Amino acid sequence: MAPLQVAEVNENRGRIYKVPHRLREVNENAYEPNVVSIGPYHHGKQHLKAMQVIKRSFFLKIAEENNPNVNELARTMRSLEARIRKCYEEAAFYLDSDQLVEMMLLDGCFIVQLIRGIHLAEDIFEVGRIQTDILHDLLLLENQLPFFVLIELYRMMVPIAGGDVHHLARSALSLFGVSPCPLPETDIMHLLDLVHSCEHPSPLGIKQHELFKAKAAVAVAAAAEQNSQRSWKFIRSATELEGAGISFFGKDVQLLCKSGVIDNWLGDDEAVALMFNKLRDSIYMSEDFYYAEIF
């Protein structure tokens, strides 16, 4: 098994970025944590302060057990301070050294304890909605800790694991309900990066790739031949639809549902229509787009 690496911070790799303005303005709430802040970007927001009490309770439980010694944990985080600050944009600079160390300890220990399955007596995970919100918040782009912080805390809190990155990664994936997968051999930046790397489709092998291309070509040709007399033009992307002046309405969603094309799990036809109309908002397609060869 190849050694799993933890991201080294450089100009591009290992950074925890903020959501670009062009994406945030489409739906700002999509990038805001509901119940828990992790890291500096949403730290101190009023609606997230209740969870700070829970995080502090997690940490006090560790302090009571004195395993590991909290002073050792604090010294380790302080030794990583410069490296941690390089991972964030300007939001990390309003915190002084003590504030940054405290935030890393509270947030990091909270995450590690959740990954380990160790909860408090007043178990917040017994409330289904809270559990869903916490797991959702832990995978937001702006709500991340550097993975090397979690590794160091895990190494000290679970000495029997010896700081095994694979063990921590597998346990984290289990927390999020992600099926076991070959763990990435590249750097892990944070929890979101870990989950994304396991959920991202693996590249097709050469033979499978060629077979996939051939099947796609046959399907397109057959459809073109079948519909040539009708002079239909297949529009296969949201960008082309918008360029052609096409918008979806609630009645269109009803027709698609009746025809068995889609299932409406939202229940509101207009909400589904709005979703289709906004699919391409602020989205860029690169040449390595996963379905590029179909389009």
Features:
single chain; 295 residues; mainly alpha; 2 domains; 13 helices
Name the poorly predicted regions: none
Total domain modules: 2
Number of strands: 0
Main pleated sheet: none
Give the ordered list of helices and strands. Answer: HHHHHHHHHHHHH
- Please, what is the average pLDDT? 80
Cα end-to-end separation? 37 Å
Helix-and-strand structural type = mainly alpha
Number of helices: 13
Gyration radius (Cα, Å) is 23 Å
Strand residue percentage: under 5%
How would you sum up the global shape? elongated
Q: Helical amount among residues, as a percent range?
A: 40-55%
Pfam family, one: DUF247
InterPro entries: DUF247_pln
Map the helices and strands:
Elements: H1 21-24, H2 49-65, H3 70-79, H4 81-85, H5 97-116, H6 128-137, H7 147-157, H8 165-175, H9 191-199, H10 206-226, H11 238-243, H12 250-258, H13 269-277
Helix pairs in contact: 2-5, 3-5, 5-7, 12-13
Structural overview:
The chain is mainly α and 295 residues long. It has 2 domains: 179 residues, no CATH class; 72 residues, no CATH class. The chain contains 13 helices and no strands. Helix 3 crosses helix 5, helix 5 crosses helix 7 and helix 12 packs across helix 13. The longest helix has 21 residues. It holds the Pfam family DUF247. InterPro entries: DUF247_pln.
